[in-house]
Amino acid sequence: MTSYRQVLAVPGMAPLLGVSLLARTAITADVMALTLFVVLGLELSYAAAGGVAAALTAGVALGGPLLGRMIDSRGLRLVLLVTVTAQVVFWLGVPVLPYGFLLVASFVAGLLMVPAQAVSRQAIAAMTTSEQRRAAFALEAVQGELSYIVGPAVVILGAATVSPDVVAWGVGAAILAGGVGIAVLNPPMHARDEAEAAAAERPPRRQWLSARMVAALTMAFGTTTLLSGVDLAIVATLREAGQVSWAAVVVVVFGVSSVIGGLVYGALTRPLPTWLLLALLGLVTIPAGLAHDWAWLCVAVVGSGLLTAPTLGSVADAVSRLAPPRARGEVTGLQSSAQSAGFALGSPLVGVAIDLSVPAGGFAAAGLAGLAAAGTGYVLSRRSRICAMRSGLTGRLPWSSQVGRSSARRRSPTAG
């Protein structure tokens, strides 16, 4: 655990992780809060609730790179001021908006969501050394898993015991507190030794959107596609067994396993490649469909849980290393967008597989999606390395020829 003590000893790191955990927990719960408000507050269908959730998710996916680019060019505090204000207006208005306006407002709110996750990743990359970064991103992944365990559960409990209106205001208040806390901390977006690079002209997108970057983003997308699909497959399996009420227990076991896996992985001295972690995650997910009751399903998801946070942390580490300082905000925004798109696609993809087969087909579809993304990431990364090797050889040829010509001139009696 020495590596974690070193990370938490970095000035400003512990407060940043604490404040961003608050913001991310609220942001993780926003879809559930809107779903319960539409179903319980407006007394509309789950399909209508799904429309609001999809609008919010689409806004988040589109807004990530835009907000990241604004952070690169305008600074963190301006972006936080705009996004926090937008969230306060939206969540205060949720209980009084008719469905049509709520649909549009949800998209705008997603577009201007407080970028807590992207900011914490940028700050981690700026505040830690290369040796500390893997442990730091493991903590960030564990933070994400804790937010998924706590956020939706608190919202469901609040909607059941108080009201969906109050829950909506509570989510907005938590996002406000988290955003303001990050603004007060104002974490650095660039390391000290990156000051010159950060002040330089912004590199063109074609320069940093390389095959390795596309590979990392593809694996980010594949990981969340798998995770979103597993959530639905768990519910479908337990519904068939008549044990839907136990779904929360299975999800908690999954989340706790992920936290343990993330902490163990971050403490290892030799990391595994991201594509291999994702491939292993896909492989252990497929046989989880063999479980037919909640107890065995708790056992079956442990393997997937142990690999979840390590895979997410490895993806974040890879993206941060590939991102140039001047475009790091846009790059981390793209990563958030890729993960949001994966969450949006995973449920319908696995839902189709379940409808066409059995609940076990949902686990198979989720695992195969992860394997496909891992395979794509491996091929793109390998191709990038081969191209780099060839470019290196080609780049040395003119230098060698020039050395040869210079030597020839020195040996020539007519030289200078």
UniProtKB/TrEMBL annotation:
Species: Micromonospora arida
Gene3D superfamilies, per the entry: MFS general substrate transporter like domains (1.20.1250.20)
Pfam families found in the cross-reference section: MFS_1
UniProt cross-references to InterPro entries, sorted A to Z: MFS, MFS_trans_sf
A single GO molecular function term of this UniProt record: transmembrane transporter activity
Name the UniProt record assigns to this protein: MFS transporter
Keywords: Membrane, Transmembrane, Transmembrane helix
Chain segments annotated as transmembrane: 46-68, 75-93, 99-116, 137-160, 166-185, 214-238, 244-265, 272-288, 360-380
